[in-house]
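Quick start: what a row looks like.
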Amino acid sequence: RQAMGQICSSSEEGSKTLPQKMSDALLRHVPVVPKGGEEEQIDYATSGDFKKAESHLRPESDLSDKLFGWPDDDFSEANSVHGKWHTEPVKQKTAGDWAIDFTLPAAAAASAPDGVASETPPRFFSLSALLREKPVMVCSVALTCPHCMAWSAAMDEFAKEYAENFHFVAVAVMQPHPEKPAKSFETGKVWEFIYTKGVPQERTLAERLTSASTIKKELPHWTVVADDLDARVNPFWSTYGPAPRCAYLIHTNGLICHSMLWWEPTRATKAVKAYLA
């Protein structure tokens, strides 16, 4: 009843057909099952036939940018994930939300020399184009993220196993443990780690594309793209969340069905099997 009561709640709705209005109302109230705070999934058992709904993917104009004010404002203990906990959450998108479209440049071909981005203009991939073919699992990754690097082999095997049913997109984002003097966005301090050596905090798209090409060698079965640092600053990272290992399973109609703060194979397997059931 609550959902149906919202069907004619605005003049914007007036031009829509009744099936469209019912679809909108249904999908605004998809139940979500929390899974320990780090993982959430829509409740398929009580969500009705949402898979037949029209696409509600939000436009790219809804993307944010310059999270934490970077690069105009540097990271500090106050201006960081830890300093703004619950103000600028780690996951800004979660299960039950509508995904926002993005178009980002792909990593250079595997034939490019080590550590060198291809001089050929990059190919661009958009979420909306991929969703027209099949659902998408998208994951943020970074070279200095120990979790990403530790699970990279498992991530690639996972994508290879489920390639028939899903697209897999890895977005190269901000480095959580860049080489000093750069500060970590997690803590606002210098925080070097095992994968830090030789990896600065990228400040140009060309630098990030070079990192994306290195990531592509670890994830050959994923489409690897670079978060923008040209026309916009970190639109994916600013919108979907600054955790460099979070993942989202997105239905072809734009609904985020599953979100994970930390990608790992057990959670990912549960997510795709629930989707396919």
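That is the whole record. Strands lie at 32-34, 39-42, 103-105, 124-126, 136-141, 167-172, 223-226, 247-250, 256-260. The longest helix spans residues 146-161.
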